[in-house]
Amino acid sequence: PGAENYGFQAQPMQPMGFPGGFVPPVQNQPTMGGTIWMPIPPSIPNCPPGLEYLTQEFSRLCPHFSVLTGFETNNRYELKNALGQRVYFAAEDTDCLTRNCCGPSRPFTIRIIDNLGHEVITLRRPLRCSLCCCPCCLQELEVQAPPGTTVGYVVQNWHACLPKFTIQDEKRMDILKITGPCIVCRCCEDVHFEVKSVDETCDVGRISKQWTGLVREMFTDTDNFGISFPMDLDVKMKAVMIGACFLIVSLSFTNI
């Protein structure tokens, strides 16, 4: 209670070019696979355009999130709320050589668009190392909302055993901490990355890899994730938490 839950679910998509070739469906109308877009919320003063979706209340419903990957194509994502309505669509903008040579440590740009076709969030990740033996060059992700305006960063912290990250605002001030388990691959149970206050004394939210069954885990490229955060969290930091989820997914749960 007292937290909003947002998720991402990947479904088979119609062939398209991104972002210019993407034509969003009519608001509230089913798309392929029965997907329904979340209604467009009213504009809110001092809220970056497109982030109004993250101010809506879904605290009593379950989160959903998933990832669709491909060897020869860029990763694509659907971001859904707890009602199963699509909030955003996202696609990674990298070439095949980069994806397959750099793997989980690859640089990328992920463009997140709303149901009007507007790019509302841009995630930029430079080429960095993710090994604990190179603490001076760990992963970092910049979150822009709208594109061109930095609202925060996700910075990987050095630790010998645990995946740890810091969420920072646009001025590089630490806002939240994220700590994952030592072993991120578990059978028949969810994997949780706990979001905590800066001093790590209070639980604030959670990013979870959800177990979807043995067959789906072994034979498909689709993963499910969930994000929960406080309802009163700054909407910009909610956008940065979405970026943190993408960084965690790329580092810990995908090979391409």
TrEMBL record:
InterPro entries: Scramblase. It is found in: Membrane. GO terms for cellular component: plasma membrane. It is a single-pass type II membrane protein. It holds the Pfam family Scramblase. The keyword Isomerase does not apply. Its cofactor is Ca(2+). GO terms for molecular function: phospholipid scramblase activity. Keywords: Calcium, Lipoprotein, Membrane, Palmitate, Phosphoprotein, Transmembrane, Transmembrane helix. Its main location: membrane. Belongs to the phospholipid scramblase family. May mediate accelerated ATP-independent bidirectional transbilayer migration of phospholipids upon binding calcium ions that results in a loss of phospholipid asymmetry in the plasma membrane. This is Phospholipid scramblase.
